[in-house]
Amino acid sequence: MAPLDQAVQDDAEVALLARLRAGDPAAFEQLVRAHGGRLLAVARRLLRDEEDARDALQEAFVSAFKGLPGFGGGSRLGTWLHSILVNAALMRLRRRRRKPEQALDDLLPSFLDDGHHARPPAPWRQDAHVLVEQRETREFVHAAIDRLPESYRTVLLLRDVEELDTETTARALGITANLVKVRLHRARQALRTLLSPRFEQGAA
Amino acid sequence: MITCRDLLGFLHDYTAGALNEAQTRTFEEHLAVCPPCVAYLATYRAVSTLSLATQQSDASSDELPEDLVRAILAARDRPSAP
Question: I need a surface site. Which of A111, A118, A141, B5 has the fewest CB within 10 A?
């Protein structure tokens, strides 16, 4: 789900912000309870490890608490918290022991001299979206995403799974919008190659 | 007429609706005569849809466990680690 995007805060949020800045502990608890569930879901999707997700959530709220003096109120609290949480999760992802990643070039389609596909792409089954209802299929997709090199995996997760727009993704990763587009395109191609054996028509 | 390789380069922008009229026409002219690229386009789109659907099927309740709430509140009160 995309983060809340309205720039203007409503009265309730202005009041909560005032109480937060005043150091009201009940206000902080209210903030945690109002946004924590949604943010925990984001952390779980990015980190795919319950303990890491909880730690990232905790870090994010503590970070937000410390960052309150610097929060100008130029965006919604939810949007601000979401970006702190995404950063905390991305930092954890970067620190992780690297699993064997597949070289991206090996996963991109190749072409003949005349510009035709070297291996004509096969159509996929019509019921692919039904297949993901099975846990085993989902595990297969997760494993495939995990095999992407990290910089491509994070772009795919933020753009296609978290559905953040290009600008927000670029800011979160500290790269240009153009680089986001290039990496996303390559990530999708690579993931397509990895998923094809399972989803092609005629596959077992 | 553009090649399949050329088309791949445009694919991201086409699916994002970011090609202008002339580019879109060129793109679709190729699709009209190239079943492999039609298949590739469909599967390229499916990759995004499936990535999202996989995560959504996984989605457990968004409920915040009470012990986690308490841990967060306690962490707020702790002085920062050096």
Answer: A118
